[in-house]
Amino acid sequence: MVLVLYSSPHSDGFTFKALNIVLKFFENSEIKIISSYDLNAKPCVDCGYCKDTSICKFYDLDEFYDLLFSSNLLIIATPVYNFSIPSPLKSIIDRNQRFYNKKFNFKEKNAILIVTSGKSDQLSLKIIKKQLFYSFKFIKIKFVFVTLTNTDKMV
Fold first, then answer.
1. Per-residue pLDDT tens for 19-77?
2. Long-range contact list for 42-50, CB < 8 A, 24+ apart?
3. Which of 132, 95, 126, 127 is nearest to 113 (CA)?
4. 8, 13, 79: which is closest to 37 by C-alpha?
5. What gap in Å lies between CA 125 and CA 84, rounded to an integer?
6. SS3 of residue 146 by DSSP
7. What is the pTM of this model?
8. In a 10 Å sphere around its CB, with 0-12 CB exposed, 13-18 middle and 19+ buried, how is residue 128 labelled?
9. Where does the record place a coiled coil (predicted)?
10. Which of 65, 40, 47 is nearest to 139 (CA)?
């Protein structure tokens, strides 16, 4: 199964179009698309609960993590917002702290990160790549990066 974490509030913009191009390569696979906006994940509050129990005190992402760990491939599709990622995706990523705290033993998984940007700004792309690299490193997820820049000029 291919799990897509879609992180744009728009269902018809450049992020959606770029995602659909990539998904054509997986048209014979089961594809599950989850919107980070629909998940409405609570942000990590660094309460320490996961340090003691290995689980998060919030249960809003349990179904997402079940899908993540049962999937064969993760695809994250996101636009650039203020040199970073949209806040709903940031909330999900910050919740990966529990995996860092307990050093789980995960099977390696590949992922594709699709980033769209209105400008051709390499700094924001570098920031996003580093955020995701370190946030998912402890789950043993390795990313291939696909970027679509200068979308402001394509309108």
1. 999 999 999 999 999 999 999 999 999 999 988 888 899 999 999 999 999 999 999 99
2. 42/91, 42/95, 43/90, 43/91, 43/94, 43/95, 44/91, 44/94, 44/95, 44/97, 46/97, 50/97, 50/98, 50/101, 50/102
3. 132
4. 8
5. 8
6. strand
7. 0.94
8. buried
9. none
10. 65
